[in-house]
Amino acid sequence: MINVILKDKKVFLSLYLFKIYVMLSISTKYAIKAVLYLAVNSTVDKKILAKEISAPTGVPKAYLSKILQELSRHDIISSVKGPNGGFYLTAENQQTSLIKIVDLIDGEHRLKSCILSIQNCNSDHPCPLHNMVGNTKSRFISKLETTSIHDLVNDIKIGKSNLPL
């Protein structure tokens, strides 16, 4: 019984430390929320302005505008300037994997770096926490690599997940 309790505490500690570590930056959370809002609400014929996305997503307009411009520059979302302009997602945009958004906003190093920021930490030379979060972190990164915007939108549309925007 004691072994089980200790094992459960170790699992709990591992998940807790992993949660602290992988918390995506606020900017990445904003980017994903904005992309999902566009995916659900925009079309090529129905472009949406940054100010229209700001209120339902809770993202400050000026900050959101910068994020959307960056996403557009990297073809994660589409945009058109001018009187009938705005942001939207094409079918091609919706095939973008989530890791592309995370890497663009947070940098490729964020999810792949050591939890203790030890430069030479790897499976051959692990830091003290490496083995506690390594497999969980790898699975999370794998899910980000294999999950597209389209996958999340489908989950929202069929009620498998909720996007209260």
Q: What structural class results from the helix and strand content?
A: mainly alpha
The main β sheet shows up as: 2 strands, antiparallel
Tell me the name of the CATH homologous superfamily.
Answer: Winged helix-like DNA-binding domain superfamily/Winged helix DNA-binding domain
CATH topology: Arc Repressor Mutant, subunit A
Instruction: Report the mean per-residue pLDDT as an integer.
Output: 86
Spans with pLDDT under 50 lasting ≥5 residues?
1-6
Helix content: 55-70%
Number of helices: 9
So what's the overall shape? elongated
Indicate how many domains the architecture comprises: 1
Query: What percent strand?
Result: under 5%
Termini gap: 46 Å
Radius of gyration over alpha carbons? Answer: 19 Å
CATH architecture: Orthogonal Bundle
Give the spatial strand order of the biggest sheet.
1-2
GO molecular function, one term: DNA-binding transcription factor activity
Protein name: Transcriptional regulator, BadM/Rrf2 family
InterPro entries: Tscrpt_reg_Rrf2, WH-like_DNA-bd_sf, WH_DNA-bd_sf
Pfam family, one: Rrf2
